[in-house]
């Protein structure tokens, strides 16, 4: 066996004619991409058409397509698990960067809430099954099975670099990704229509589709099921996006050979909890708890009160909290970027599909909030009269743009830094010194008189001119934490908790875009809801993806 094989670099498995292999690899990828594009466009067409009553596309048409897609994916996942388990050479290596434990843990958390949502849906549709199509009851059942099978699949296979059935695997993974995106589009559309009905209550929104027009949900248990699954939609939406990201990384790793000389962040995952955090977590928790209080008061005053003054007070409170939060986050991100200027860690230039996807998702998802903010700025500046709420709204929009920009810079630079090497160097040097001290300290101290200690040559590297007792004191002294690393961790934890509350507020009902009439009056009842319904889901996803990225930055610091 050659040394390369013994070291795990897998060089002998590389083909002798890489050109033809690369062409075929690109051809297989292109076919799977085309398959995903056509399925995604078909699903998008049906979902968007089914959202309007006057278009002859009904919700059961959408449910039928999604049910078929999920059943096909379930069959393919079973085939994948069986075929890879029976073939010993199916998975020659694994990508240590793909599917980190915190990402898979978040996936399981969202999967649990998605299953609860499916239970509520089954109970809701079963309340009046006599006037509904059977596919409406079958859909949540199949979705629950799909969530269980896919979660198990991603938990055990997220790191796989498959080397058998390459084209079938690529097409299967792209079908899985497209199915998750189609489920995400359906959930976002259903939730947006529900929010539009509850917030606007205008005649124009009566044209929007409601899944239970022909049936009446009069019983109390039916209303509980209905409200319950709508409140759980944000978790299902995030589950679909998390799964899509993990499946995409698996697709990129099909047929890939891993460079084992790159660093492995998984080895650092437990070092995060060896240091005590105070400032970042305390300030972040204060923001988080305050935000929950603001959200509760905002929802109560806006939805239950008919007095305009109560609504204005709720909007003022909401804007002030977000202005303070976004301002602090922007300053902290700028401070973190300045600290990076003094960071001595090298940039990581290894190929890493997970990091590439993280950066692309951060930049792409931020465009949704950018669009809403710029539309708001134009409407506020061009509208008259200008009151205090308009000034707060303008400040809020400007700070939202600044905070996304500074946070993206901080996260992307942190993701491209190599993990610190001080711990490794210190531990290896410490082992050498411990070996010298434990074995030779008595002999050295007896052989070296004080008068000749200065002129005696040192025989051990790293101990020149140092008395053994000094070595012992240096080894037993507590190791100081690098101030740059400590500040970066504090900043990351603070931003992480702030992003959580900024995800919770819009995901669970806060819609100042509709409660504040400035943009609605400027753009109209048709254009502004369309802008918000298209762009806001990307802004919500940005916050949750930023949480995962900040956790990785914190661990790598």
TrEMBL record:
Tagged with keyword Nucleotidyltransferase: no
Protein keywords: Cell membrane, Hydrogen ion transport, Ion channel, Ion transport, Membrane, Transmembrane, Transmembrane helix, Transport
Transmembrane segments: 30-50, 62-82, 102-125, 137-156, 230-251, 272-298, 318-340, 360-382, 487-508, 528-551
GO molecular function list: proton channel activity
Disordered as annotated region, ranges: 1-20, 449-471
Presence of keyword Endoplasmic reticulum: no
Record's compositionally biased regions (Low complexity): 451-461
Topology versus the membrane: Multi-pass membrane protein
InterPro entries linked: Otopetrin
UniProt subcellular location: Cell membrane
Gene Ontology terms: cellular component: plasma membrane
Family: Belongs to the otopetrin family.
Name assigned to this protein: Otopetrin 2
